[in-house]
Specification:
This protein is an alpha/beta fold. The chain contains 9 helices and 14 strands. Helix 7 links the parallel strand 12 and strand 13.
Length: about 325
C-alpha cells in the first residue's frame, strides 16, 4: 500500500503485527524506551513526510495505562512535527472510558481530558472499538470511528453454542441494554436484563433479573470485564433463576485484581473476549478465557480509511 505507515506502541505489538499482515505490510520502525528518570523516549525510525500514519496503542488493561497513553501522545506529536500528512490514533480499548460523566460532586470527566490530549498532540482521526459510552465520540472535534465487535460475537455464538436459537442474551446492567437488544434481534432470540445497585464502585450490592431464562442457555454480553464481580454475580443469579448454562461475552478483557480467581470459581462455562488487549498470560492462568480475533475488522477499517471508502459495512459484517 502506498503512503501508509503503521507504528505500534508497547501495549499490543502482536495485534499491530496481525493488522499489518492483513494490509500486506510490516509495522514501521520505532524505538520506544525510557530514560533513567523514567521519562518516555520515542524515536521514529523512518521518514513519515507526506505519509498516512496509523499509531496503534491499546489503553486500559495492558499494564501501565498512563505510560502507554503518554507513549501514544509522544508518537502522535513526533509524527505530526515530522510532516506526516495525516495521523490516526488506533485505540482498540479507549483509556479512562468509564470516567465519562460527572456522577458525583467534584468528579473529573477523564475521558474528555484524554480526548483533549489526543487532539492537542496532533491526532487527525481516531479509530476505536466498543466505547463504554458512544457519547465519548462527542468529546472530540475530529472524526471518530467507533467499530463494533458485534459481528464477531454473533459469529462466535453461532459457531460455538449448540442450540443457540434457544439461548437468551442477558445484559448485566441497564447501561448495556441497547447492545444486548441489538444482538438478540439479529439472532432472533429473547433477551433479559439484570438491574444492579452498587454501594461503592466495583462492588455490587443487589441484583434483580428481568426476563425468563428457565431451562435456557444464558449469554451475558457487556463491553468490558474488569474485576468480574458483576459478571460472576450475574451468572449466579441466572443459575438460581433456572438457566441451563451460562456464557459471558465481553469486548475488552481487562481482568484486574481477583478477576481470574473469581472466573475459575464461578459457574460460567466460558468467558469470550476480543484481542483488543493481550490475553496470553491470562489464558495460562484461566483456561475458561477464549479469544476472538478482531484484527481483520481494525485492519479493514484502516484500509478503507486510507482509501477514502465508507466503513459502515464493518458495523454489521466481518470482512473476509
Amino acid at each position: 500500500m502506498p503512503n501508509i505507515k503503521i507504528f505500534a506502541g508497547n501495549s499490543h505489538p502482536e495485534l499491530a503485527q496481525r493488522i499489518a499482515q492483513r494490509l500486506g505490510t510490516e509495522p514501521s520502525k520505532v524505538v520506544l524506551k525510557k530514560f533513567a528518570n523514567q521519562e518516555t523516549c520515542v524515536e521514529i525510525g523512518e521518514s513519515v513526510r507526506g505519509e498516512d500514519v496509523y499509531i496503534l496503542q491499546s489503553g486500559t488493561g495492558c499494564g501501565e495505562v498512563n505510560d502507554h497513553l503518554m507513549e501514544m501522545l509522544i508518537m502522535i506529536h513526533a509524527c505530526k512535527i515530522a510532516s506526516a500528512e495525516r495521523v490516526t490514533a488506533v485505540i482498540p480499548c479507549y483509556p479512562y472510558a468509564r470516567q465519562d460523566k460527572k456522577d458525583k460532586s467534584r468528579a473529573p470527566i477523564s475521558a474528555k481530558l484524554v480526548a483533549n490530549m489526543l487532539s492537542v498532540a496532533g491526532a487527525d482521526h481516531i479509530i476505536t472499538m466498543d466505547l463504554h459510552a458512544s457519547q465519548i465520540q462527542g468529546f472530540f472535534d475530529i472524526p471518530v470511528d467507533n467499530l463494533y465487535a458485534e459481528p464477531a460475537v454473533l459469529k462466535w455464538i453461532k459457531e460455538n453454542i449448540e442450540n443457540w436459537r434457544e439461548c437468551t442474551i442477558v445484559s448485566p446492567d441497564a447501561g448495556g441494554a441497547k447492545r444486548v437488544v441489538s444482538i438478540a434481534d439479529r439472532l432472533n432470540v429473547n433477551f433479559a436484563l439484570i438491574h444492579k445497585e452498587r454501594a461503592v464502585a466495583n462492588e455490587v450490592q443487589r441484583m434483580t433479573l428481568v426476563g425468563d431464562v428457565t431451562g435456557r442457555t444464558a449469554i451475558i454480553v457487556d463491553d468490558l470485564a474488569d474485576t468480574c464481580g458483576t459478571v460472576v454475580k450475574a451468572a449466579e443469579k441466572l443459575k438460581e433463576a433456572g438457566a441451563k448454562m451460562v456464557y459471558a461475552v465481553m469486548t475488552h478483557g481487562v481482568f484486574s485484581g481477583p478477576a481470574l480467581e473469581r472466573l475459575m470459581d464461578s459457574c460460567i462455562e466460558a468467558i469470550v473476549v476480543s484481542n483488543t488487549i493481550p490475553q496470553h498470560e491470562k489464558i495460562a492462568v484461566c483456561p475458561k478465557i477464549q479469544v476472538i480475533d478482531i484484527s481483520s475488522i481494525v485492519g479493514e477499517a484502516i484500509r478503507r480509511t486510507h482509501n477514502g471508502e465508507s466503513i459502515s459495512y464493518l458495523l454489521q459484517n466481518i470482512p473476509l
